[in-house]
Design a protein that fits this description.
By secondary structure, the chain is mainly β. It has one helix spanning 298-307, and strands spanning 8-11, 16-20, 23-27, 31-34, 41-47, 68-70, 87-88, 94-98, 116-118, 121-123, 165-166, 172-173, 203-205, 212-214, 278-283, 286-290, 294-297. The mean pLDDT is 89.
Length: 312
């Protein structure tokens, strides 16, 4: 009968420990992220393009901010949501990154922003500010014109745009565009004369090591005349236009801010463009141990060989 001798077989390696450093990559335009060799999960901030402001109406609305999603622990996503789970990835693998463009301003309704995405996580473009069309939904909703409600935001990404009010003459105001952390300000009813309203504020993140606020809504404007304009929301929102018949302020590039509303007469004014989005990915540091021992107990070897379960 065979006996095991209690000894050991195999090579006794000298273990080596170390750390794969954290890597932070910011994409201001579309590209490819290639993960480091030992990365298995990442944090992200994904902001879509902001919507453009409306133009040439009875108090044109500001553009809504691009949708805002975050998986940074302890931070927030848009719409009052908590941070999402980290995104699982494979090491040394390429992942397409899409950074959405801001919506284009026109002499009428503002265009919606474009989607940003990474690893099957997508943020929706901000809603365009309204002139006469229906309210514009989006990551955050566009501000309204005339007597309509603001566009709806997307759950977990942003808030609604502000409502407008129409009272005739100069007593008309558009609603501010929705922001990632706040609803766009609505024009009260009855509307005061010649007044715009602020866009909603965005969300701050320290994923890059410094706190930066992104995805603010665009400010709106009042009817036709030079008047008080709505400020853009914190996080890149553009202010409404003053004087009339001009181009409203755009959302800031790579923040997903909404563009400002403009109320020039006779189709001569243009709503502000939405700001382009951004995708930021953080690969956390990873501690590792290499060259762990390749030594096996001979008792275990004998038992496994006898049972036919040993894998060489």
């Amino acid at each position: 009968m065979a006996n095991s001798n209690g000894g050991f077989v195999g090579i006794d390696y000298e273990p080596e420990s170390g750390t794969q450093d954290a890597v932070i990559t910011t994409f201001n335009s579309s590209g490819t992220l290639t993960t480091a060799a030992r990365t298995t999960a990442v944090q992200y901030v994904i902001v879509a393009g902001g919507g453009a402001g409306g133009a040439n109406g009875n108090g044109s609305g500001g553009g809504g901010a691009g949708g805002y999603r975050s998986s940074v622990p302890g931070e927030a996503s848009g719409g009052g949501a908590s941070a999402e789970s980290l995104s699982s990835v494979s090491g040394a693998t390429g992942y397409p990154i899409v950074v959405g463009a801001g919506g284009a301003g026109t002499t009428s309704d503002g265009a919606r922003g474009s989607t940003s995405s990474f690893n099957s996580v997508s943020s929706i473009g901000g809603g365009g500010g309204s002139f006469v069309g229906p309210e514009k939904p989006g990551g955050s909703g566009g501000g309204a014109s005339y007597s309509t409600g603001g566009g709806s935001g997307t759950s977990g990404q942003g808030f609604n745009g502000g409502a407008s009010s129409y009272a005739g003459g100069s007593n008309n105001g558009g609603g501010g565009g929705g922001g990632a952390s706040e609803v766009g300000t609505s024009c009260p009813a009855p509307a005061p004369p010649q007044r715009g309203y602020p866009g909603g504020d965005g969300v701050a993140s320290s994923i890059t090591g410094s706190s930066v606020t992104r995805a603010g809504g665009g400010g709106s404007c009042g009817r036709f005349e030079n008047a008080v304009i709505g400020a853009g929301g914190a996080g890149g929102g553009g202010a409404g236009a003053n004087p009339v018949s001009s181009t409203a302020n755009p959302g800031t590039a790579n923040t997903g801010g909404g563009g400002g509303g403009e109320d020039g007469a006779n189709g001569t004014g243009t709503g502000g463009n939405g700001g382009s989005g951004v995708v930021i990915v953080k690969e956390p540091a990873v501690s590792f141990v290499d060259n762990t021992s390749g030594v096996w107990d001979m008792n275990a070897l004998y038992d496994n060989v006898k049972a036919g379960t040993w894998v060489s």
